TrEMBL record:
Gene3D superfamilies: 3.30.70.330. GO terms for cellular component: ribonucleoprotein complex. The keyword RNA-binding applies. It comes from Cyprinus carpio. It comes from the Eukaryota. This is XRRM domain-containing protein. InterPro entries: La_xRRM, Nucleotide-bd_a/b_plait_sf, RBD_domain_sf. Keywords: RNA-binding.
């Protein structure tokens, strides 16, 4: 079908946005609207005008919120200990997996 650039949806939401790599990709999906409605029960719309402007504004607001959010900075031995703990946990979960062979 069409190359997807980004999917903007949160878990549990009933509505989301799909950005395609090109406008032609979005048009292809719009032409297949009835198939998507029948097969997946999806209602597909092409954003334009004011709705499109509001969506791009939402993207900018979300991006600023992400960039301005405080994040924990670990340095030195604290960072090394954190990495080592992650590795130990990963190895422990990998070792606890059972491999079963069918006869």
């Amino acid at each position: 079908m069409s190359a997807v650039a980004y999917v903007d949806i949160l878990d549990g939401d009933k509505e989301g946005y799909i950005r395609f790599k090109s406008p032609e990709g979005a048009q292809t999906v719009i032409t297949a609207r009835s198939e998507l409605q029948k097969k997946y029960n999806w209602n597909v719309e092409l954003l334009s005008g004011d709705h499109e402007q509001r969506y791009w504004q939402k993207i900018l607001v979300d991006r600023q919120a992400k960039l301005n959010s405080p994040r924990e900075k670990k340095r030195g031995t604290e960072k090394l200990i954190s990495k080592a703990e992650k590795i130990i946990i990963a190895r422990a979960t990998e070792a606890s997996k059972h491999i079963r062979f069918d006869d």
